[in-house]
Amino acid sequence: MSERVLLAGCGDLGLRVAALLLEQGDDVYALRRHAPAPDGSSLRWLSGDLTQRETLRSLPTGITQLVYLPTPDAREEAAYRAIFIDGLRNVLDALTENSLQRVLFVSSTAVYGEHGDQWVDEATPPAPLGFNGEVLLEAERWLAAQPVRSIALRLAGLYGPGRIQLIERLRSGLASAPRKPVHWTNRIHIDDAAAAIAHLLRIREPQTLYLGVDDTPLPMDELYESLAALIGAAAVPEGSAPASIGSKRLSNARLRGSGFRFRWPDSRVGYAHLLPAR
């Protein structure tokens, strides 16, 4: 059965989700502050500011699924609260009719803290190290208390086309990585992230929380050295662990157990595919 889906905050990730949903025959609306000009596609663009409730009064009727995946204007707590707390409440208030059956909230593994080399899954208590994780966790908990069925998908670091900042830093000699103790890092290709969202919208009885991460957590120095060798860059110098990003190995067992399969289970292979043939 086709769905009527609203993608609230439709950027790069949202466009990839939209393409998958349109292929499935869904009726898809994409909300941005400034909608682009019509391009002849089946995607229905809407203009609205998630932080301004009055701009959301004309949302279409009959929406059955909401995917909430905006990007804050700035890496500041006020901007995060405006978009993830106020904005989420605003859009749910605007969808007041009884047609809404499911909300998928795109969150982040930043809700977890420092776990060394221990495995982390959906049962691990969150302990954010930064304001971003704290705000996202607050939004998750608020949404879970609402009467509509909801799913939180905590994504690890996204990479993919147009998201190769790490490669550029390595090429420029600006990246460093800790070696002892090992600092574990986790990734997911943006196409796998989009596919996971589309997949979770189709599960009849989804669980309320999933980790969106590939099969292969890696020590940061191992990932960086592998990519540096791939592009012919200099050896990566030792440096401090990144601030407010705890070391942990994230498990995708629940997502895989739901039937999802990754196209890019190892970020080293995924990154290699993004580079021109040498």
Please give a structural write-up.
It is a single chain. 32% of the residues lie in helices and 18% in strands. The protein is α/β, with parallel strands linked by helices. β4 (65-68), α2 and β5 form a beta-alpha-beta unit. It is globular and about 55 Å long. The mean pLDDT is 95.
Structural features:
32% helix, seven-stranded parallel beta sheet, alpha/beta, 278 residues, 13 strands, two-stranded parallel sheet
Can you describe this structure in just a few lines?
The chain has helices at 12-23, 77-94, 131-144, 165-171, 190-202, 220-231, 253-257, 267-274, and strands spanning 4-8, 27-32, 44-47, 65-68, 102-108, 119-120, 149-155, 157-159, 184-185, 187-189, 209-212, 218-219, 249-250. With 278 residues, the chain is an alpha/beta fold.
Radius of gyration: 19 Å
Total helices: the number is 8
* Main sheet characteristics: 7 strands, parallel
- Read across the widest sheet, the strand sequence of neighbours is 3-2-1-4-5-7-11
Cα shape: globular
Secondary structure: elements and pairs:
Layout: E1 4-8, H1 12-23, E2 27-32, E3 44-47, E4 65-68, H2 77-94, E5 102-108, E6 119-120, H3 131-144, E7 149-155, E8 157-159, H4 165-171, E9 184-185, E10 187-189, H5 190-202, E11 209-212, E12 218-219, H6 220-231, E13 249-250, H7 253-257, H8 267-274
Parallel strand pairs: 1-2, 1-4, 2-3, 4-5, 5-7, 6-13, 7-11, 8-10
Antiparallel strand pairs: 9-12
Helix pairs in contact: 1-5, 2-3, 4-6, 6-8
